[in-house]
């Protein structure tokens, strides 16, 4: 009967706060522009069985190669095992319409070897966009459990709660072999820090963050790199990750634009058609000349 920590992580605008509100019964402000959640918010969730969870809503972040203060909040929490909110399970929230981009962050979190659940949110938009998913394939390739959620309709939340309750069954295997971005360098890192996860080390070296017992200044000069070199390696890492994601989605996701024929899809396309601009313009002209 213990409180576990659950961190909600994801790109801006994917529905993290909406999922947070469902899990906690709270009513945090939801918005359709980024930057609403600027610091961590904590809520409480009763799980199936006897467990409870602290749910931590985090600012939106595109990757763990932090460049903004918002993103640093996420990196510092994930790299600091001593933080009292350090997650027992990371829930990465994604938007079904932007899976490819959203999965970049998922693969990075997965590679920190924290138990991770993937929420694919906005499931209510799949029909109108002609998107179908092979969940079993995605779970297999990404080495994770998936909850297909619509926080708009409130579906999939019970599945998510059950997955959180069963977090001990989640795999902590990484999904991308990061050491291949510079094998010699990562080998040296591994030898110098036999008890550390090299991907964590790599994140600490790549930016100014501390993680608990291992502070950045403890890393010998031999391992520091020029900013240009770090940027080059980060780019290589991103390319590797997108290769993996593309391969995974090639089988796991089908987007059939011709199937996007539901009323919603038609309405969407009709309402956003640029011809409306001209029609309204003409109507205004007509009104002016008639009066
Ligand atoms: P956050 O930035 O990740 O915290 O995202 P929010 O929870 O603030 O939601 C961003 C926008 O997406 C808001 O306009 C929500 O109403 C909308 N949204 C969230 N979940 C869903 C969903 O399941 N379906 C649809 N259609 N829209 C959603
Ligand atoms: Mg938010």
UniProtKB/TrEMBL annotation:
It is found in: Cell inner membrane; Cell membrane. The chain crosses the membrane at residues 275-291. Residues 3-170 form the FeoB-type G domain. Mg(2+) binds at residues 21, 24-25. GTP binds at residues 10-17, 35-39, 57-60, 121-124. Belongs to the TRAFAC class TrmE-Era-EngA-EngB-Septin-like GTPase superfamily. FeoB GTPase (TC 9.A.8) family. Probable transporter of a GTP-driven Fe(2+) uptake system. This is Ferrous iron transport protein B. It comes from Flavobacterium caeni.
């Amino acid at each position: 009967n213990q409180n576990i920590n659950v961190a909600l992580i994801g790109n801006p605008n994917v529905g993290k706060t909406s999922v947070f509100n469902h899990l906690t019964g709270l009513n945090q402000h939801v918005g359709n522009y980024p930057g609403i959640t600027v610091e961590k918010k904590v809520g409480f969730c009763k799980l199936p069985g006897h467990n409870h969870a602290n749910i931590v809503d985090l600012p939106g972040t595109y990757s763990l190669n932090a460049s903004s203060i918002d993103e640093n909040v996420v990196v510092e929490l994930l790299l600091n095992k001593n933080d009292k909110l350090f997650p027992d399970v990371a829930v990465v929230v994604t938007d079904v319409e932007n899976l490819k981009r959203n999965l970049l962050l998922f693969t990075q979190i997965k590679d920190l070897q924290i138990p991770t659940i993937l929420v694919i949110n906005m499931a209510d938009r799949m029909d109108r966009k002609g998107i179908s998913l092979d969940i079993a394939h995605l779970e297999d390739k990404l080495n994770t459990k998936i909850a297909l959620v619509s926080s708009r309709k409130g579906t999939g939340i019970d599945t998510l709660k059950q997955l959180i309750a069963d977090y001990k069954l989640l795999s902590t295997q990484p999904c991308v072999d990061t050491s291949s971005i510079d094998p010699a360098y990562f080998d040296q890192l591994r030898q110098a820090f036999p008890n550390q996860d090299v991907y964590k080390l790599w994140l600490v070296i790549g930016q100014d963050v501390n993680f608990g017992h291992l502070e950045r200044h403890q890393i010998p000069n031999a391992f520091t790199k020029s900013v240009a070199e770090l940027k080059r390696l980060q780019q290589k890492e991103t390319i590797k990750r997108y290769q993996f994601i593309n391969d995974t989605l090639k089988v796991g996701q089908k987007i059939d634009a011709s199937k996007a024929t539901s009323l919603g899809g038609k309405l969407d396309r009709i309402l956003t058609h640029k011809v409306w601009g001209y029609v309204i313009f003409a109507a205004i002209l007509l009104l002016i000349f008639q009066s």
